[in-house]
């Protein structure tokens, strides 16, 4: 069975070298000649192995690089390019957690951020943790939400290149968040997503009521969104990619054709089929076998 090892570096911190590839090839003697996707940044090594051995060869490659800041992904080559991307928003597509930024505006940032961190690590159940945090925001003016979006929210590097490239290639991109539609609707436009799903913050007289509309979009709903969108677009699950960082992303990450933990919490990084610890979101394209000169805008 044909498989592929993809090595990706962050050129701003360390370039990928021929010596790095040689070290991996010594550790994985089944690996073929390098096929560069981007000079000094990303490279494929084709490997003829049983898919059951993917975890072992990835582990061998990591050991050969001995802690170097290089991301390594092992996968089969079938259905490598994906037609559907499902992405988490907070700390994935954007660099912040929106609810933490709202809490900072309300003067309770540290308290809410602690709850968020514990929920994303899987230490707290997602739904009650969300309701608890939203309750603490009761009375916050709606104008603060717009202020937070305009002044505090930034896109994660590479996401617009990913969505533009995949959509140009006929793909569909969905932003599916345990956050709030107020933000996903705006982020989806700026980040180039086709659609967005999230929770609805309830308001009255221009202020947050401290409640969120039912049903809560959490771990199960993210998985359901993956399955529904794949069915709507007549896609096999093998043709899907999911990316996220928190415990509520795990179900969709584990179910997708390839699931990617992006700078993720330990529980997610350990369970995900693929992980990105060192590089930006353009790595989602290298994982699919896109060369740099195939990126939108190149």
Automatic annotation (TrEMBL):
Q: Which residues form a coiled coil?
A: none
Question: Which residue positions does the secretion signal occupy?
Answer: none
* CDD domains xrefs: HAD_PSP
- Keyword Nucleotide-binding on this protein? no
EC number(s)? 3.1.3.3
Quote the pathway field: Amino-acid biosynthesis; L-serine biosynthesis; L-serine from 3-phospho-D-glycerate: step 3/3
UniProt xrefs under InterPro entries: HAD-like_SerB (IPR050582), HAD-like_sf (IPR036412), HAD_sf (IPR023214), PSP (IPR004469)
Identify the GO cellular component terms for this protein: cytoplasm
State whether keyword Acetylation applies: no
Q: Catalytic activity annotated for this protein? A: O-phospho-D-serine + H2O = D-serine + phosphate; O-phospho-L-serine + H2O = L-serine + phosphate
Gene3D superfamilies according to UniProt: HAD superfamily/HAD-like
Keywords for the protein's UniProt record, in alphabetical order: Amino-acid biosynthesis, Hydrolase, Magnesium, Metal-binding, Serine biosynthesis
Catalytic residues of the enzyme: 88, 90
Select a single GO molecular function from the record's annotations and give it: L-phosphoserine phosphatase activity
Name any cofactors this protein relies on. Mg(2+)
Q: Which Pfam families match?
A: HAD
Any one Gene Ontology BP term: L-serine biosynthetic process
The UniProt family comment states:
Belongs to the HAD-like hydrolase superfamily. SerB family.
Classification via PANTHER family: PHOSPHOSERINE PHOSPHATASE
Name of the protein in question: Phosphoserine phosphatase
Q: Which organism is it from?
A: Candidatus Phaeomarinibacter ectocarpi
